[in-house]
Amino acid sequence: MTFVSIRDMRTRPGEVWQQLQDEGDLIVTSSGRPFALMISAADEDVEELLLALRRARAQMAVSRLRKKAASQGLERMTPEAIEAEISQARSERRA
């Protein structure tokens, strides 16, 4: 995993470009914190790559939700309790 700062992208873009071609992906940082991922892609693979990244993000979000639910003991809720929560939220939204 190679990190490159946003400053490096401004001051030495050619080197960053070469790193991307050599490594295949780079993590872009700002103030030492990761904030973006650069991934090399062939023209014909861009749509498939974007779809795979979106699926991975969705899976990560579901995983986080499951962990949060487990930490709060919500994974043991019955279907009836879930439906009651949904109904309550909907009625509050309507009000």
Report on this model:
The mean pLDDT is 92. This protein has 95 residues and is an alpha+beta fold. The protein has helices spanning 6-11, 13-23, 46-71, 79-94; strands spanning 3-5, 25-30, 33-39. It starts with a strand and ends with a helix. It is elongated and about 60 Å long. The chain has 4 helices and 3 strands; from the N terminus they run E-H-H-E-E-H-H. It folds into 2 domains: 1-40, YefM-like domain (YefM-like fold, 3-Layer(aba) Sandwich); 42-95. A 3-stranded mixed β-sheet has the order 1-2-3.
Output the keywords.
YefM-like fold; elongated; 17% strand; alpha+beta; 95 residues
Spatial gap, N to C terminus: 50 Å
Q: Provide mean pLDDT, rounded.
A: 92
Strand order of the largest sheet: 1-2-3
- Count of discrete alpha- or pi-helical segments spanning 4 or more residues: 4
Largest sheet: 3 strands, mixed
Strand content: 15-25%
Following the backbone from N to C, one meets helices and strands in this order, namely EHHEEHH
The count of DSSP E runs of length 2 or more, i.e. the number of strands, is 3
- Coarse shape: elongated
Tally of individual domains: 2
Can you tell me the residue ranges where pLDDT is under 50 for at least 5 consecutive residues? none
Helix-strand makeup class = alpha+beta
Radius of gyration: 21 Å
Helix content: 55-70%
Concise synopsis of the structure shown:
With 95 residues, the protein is of the alpha+beta class. It is 62% helix and 17% strand.
Task: Give me the secondary-structure topology.
Layout: E1 3-5, H1 6-11, H2 13-23, E2 25-30, E3 33-39, H3 46-71, H4 79-94
